[in-house]
């Protein structure tokens, strides 16, 4: 397993994460480096997944480019600082918003996931430039301190469920604009959403989901053949099914 502390979080950053429920933006690579990676990712999204999942899901299982992004020390060192030395990569997903695509409502990610207990940290990586106009993720600092009930969302929303009764004050919303190659980290309870894409530019991001070995993943609920990858440390619990990182 990789070991590194180069990008470990400071005490001040950890304190800020506990207060706000997110950290960032941080830099994984330059926009120029991401431009090369973007071409590979566009090709990957047009290829049938070897896992049997959707083309935009779980590509860390069959594409080395995706695994290398998700396991990059810039991300994993920081996640280790918050979750400890043993770290499981259990999900990756491409979030594509084309011009005119719908709003994603305010939600907490733990509402949707088959993991027990619902302990997770996510990194959201900008593949394209991400702005307010093309639908960056919006966050509410401190919203991770309360779990909200989720209810049916309207047809105007991209998700079927949303957090109930969220009407945040505009000045409390943080728009997470990112250059290609930047990312931010957030909790499974942090309220976030993204508006409709009102620009003429695509917005593509990738999420990487991390948990710890004592959390049990319902692999079959994710998709047939799903496997996690142990990116750091050791798993003494053996609750989950693993595979090695993809070779290519």
Largest sheet: 6 strands, antiparallel
Q: What would you call the structural class?
A: alpha+beta
The percentage helix is 10-25%
Strand percentage lies at: 25-35%
Q: Output the radius of gyration.
A: 17 Å
The strand count comes to 14
Shape, per Cα inertia axes: globular
Low-confidence spans: pLDDT under 50, at least 5 residues?
none
Distance between the termini: 18 Å
Order of helices and strands: HEHHHEEEEEEEEEEEEHE
Task: Give a written overview of the molecule.
The chain is α+β, with helices and mostly antiparallel strands and 248 residues long. It is 19% helix and 26% strand. The protein is built from five helices and 14 strands. The model has no long low-confidence stretch (mean pLDDT 96).
SSE blueprint and pairings:
Blueprint lengths: L10 H10 L1 E6 L3 H15 L18 H7 L2 H11 L3 E11 L6 E4 L7 E2 L4 E6 L10 E3 L10 E3 L8 E3 L10 E3 L5 E6 L4 E3 L8 E9 L4 E2 L1 H4 L6 E4 L16
Antiparallel strand pairs: 1-10, 2-12, 2-14, 3-11, 4-13, 5-10, 5-12, 6-9, 6-11, 7-8
List keywords for this structure.
4-stranded antiparallel sheet; alpha+beta; 248 residues
Summarize the structure.
This protein is an alpha+beta fold.
